[in-house]
Amino acid sequence: MSSDHGRPSRSPATPLTSVADAARPSPAEEARTVAAATNTATLATLTGEGGDPWASFVTFGLLDGQPVLCLSRMAEHGRNLEVDARASLAIVAPDMPADPLAAARVTLAGIAERPQGEEVAAARQAHLAAVPAASIYVDFTDFTLWVLRVERVRWVGGYGRMDSVTAEDYAAAAPDPITPGAGRAVAHLNDDHADALLDMARVLGGYPDATAAVCDRADRYGLDLRVETPRGPAATRVGYAAALTSPGELRSATVELTRIARAG
Amino acid sequence: MSSDHGRPSRSPATPLTSVADAARPSPAEEARTVAAATNTATLATLTGEGGDPWASFVTFGLLDGQPVLCLSRMAEHGRNLEVDARASLAIVAPDMPADPLAAARVTLAGIAERPQGEEVAAARQAHLAAVPAASIYVDFTDFTLWVLRVERVRWVGGYGRMDSVTAEDYAAAAPDPITPGAGRAVAHLNDDHADALLDMARVLGGYPDATAAVCDRADRYGLDLRVETPRGPAATRVGYAAALTSPGELRSATVELTRIARAG
């Protein structure tokens, strides 16, 4: 994972002991997770006159990770794609943080194609599943379904977390089943189990001198923690014994992490 | 104002009496209002290799309505603008409705330029005023301020409300001082003064047979109402005696509308 520029914060403290399990979602998984978390995005197309870049708000669904758009030919973006099928889609994860550049987002770029044959029904269903209001206009004659065949993926997870992803890795990855719905569970950990998070950070996260720990995010592999130490702040990670497959497993996984930390 | 395609709803009832004052914000004012309502948007640029469209999340401020971006040259969009300065910015009004295509949004297209001379400080201040977190990186050497010189504007207010706006009209218009902060006042009207809204719709809005009225939005010129009638639903408008200049004037303006409706 590369960093485009420095993270704008105090220089972080380094771990004093090994981090027990730092496994985290791959950039491809992160990209799929952002794409699966919402149904609105901004499309970039090229204008018919001059090939200028044209940004426009759209709704979308996903068919095996490929965005499915439903665009009117009377709207500029629909006309643009009829002339030049190159397109990209910027998707921002919902629940924007106070600092917008800390938001997770992804750009998917490729070629927009009309689905053919059996894919028509699947694409229509994928769009309607994500955008129920589209049932009103999806069959209007001026609306066309487009599938964006993703060729390039750029994921940005926030400050200092970003990477490019190949089309193959993007297609093969699965969205995280935990992150999108974990907000309340994370708030509960921070509000009622700060002592457990601190034990995790000290014993499993490599910061035996941590004085406070806050959970920023839960995903299928573990928890992102921010810790305070006398040496400065740091970010670390604690991983579950096994990857989770459904949101209902998060509670027992964090209880088990607490047990291991306290037995350690 | 043109409509790109039909509004997907029951066919509306027409007014039975004249609408007292149907003045509403111009498309240029609507576009300025959307742009002033947030600090995040999606930028469309052209890739250095091939001139493909590239959509990417950005933050922005406004300098006389022209978007001011602060982009890293290490990020793809920053590099793109160095090669080809054509760009457009899609901005969506916050508080997305349940049906995303009912959201107000605007596309501003033009040429991105680095501010020069006295404009540098003004552009820097405009960006920082909208994006306080940028104070951390605005002076990093890899970040560049860009001012998007707006040449084309496309505003979409939701279903059936859309128009193109000239660069001159956009530059000359002012954002609405009422709409962005009027959510609570509108909710209060609907929750506690439904009878007053109904009187307005019957006497001033052209629907003497209205059986219910809901306020969808307040702006400097008046209120957007949705009414139910035995003939079907309809949208109408009631205008204040004079345009408002600050949010504090909204309460007395709606009290006055109620008084006029009940005197009528």
Number of domains of chain A: 2
Q: In angstroms, what separates the terminal alpha carbons of chain A?
A: 31 Å
Described by the principal axes of the CA atoms, the overall outline of chain A is: elongated
The helix content of chain A is: 25-40%
**Strand segment count of chain A:** 11
Spans of chain A of 5+ residues with little confidence (pLDDT < 50)?
A: 1-9
User: What's the oligomerization state?
Assistant: homodimer
Question: What would you give as the CATH superfamily of the largest domain in chain A?
Answer: Electron Transport, Fmn-binding Protein, Chain A
Structural class by secondary-structure content of chain A: alpha+beta
The largest sheet of chain A is:
8 strands, antiparallel
Mean pLDDT of chain A, rounded to whole units?
Answer: 92
Largest interface: A-B, 47 and 47 residues
Q: Could you say what the CATH topology of the largest domain in chain A is called?
A: Pnp Oxidase, Chain A
The CATH class of the largest domain in chain A turns out to be Mainly Beta
Estimate what percentage of residues of chain A fall within beta strands: 25-35%
Elements of chain A, N to C (H/E): HEEEEHEEHEEHHHEEEH
Radius of gyration of chain A (Å): 21 Å
> Helix tally of chain A?
7
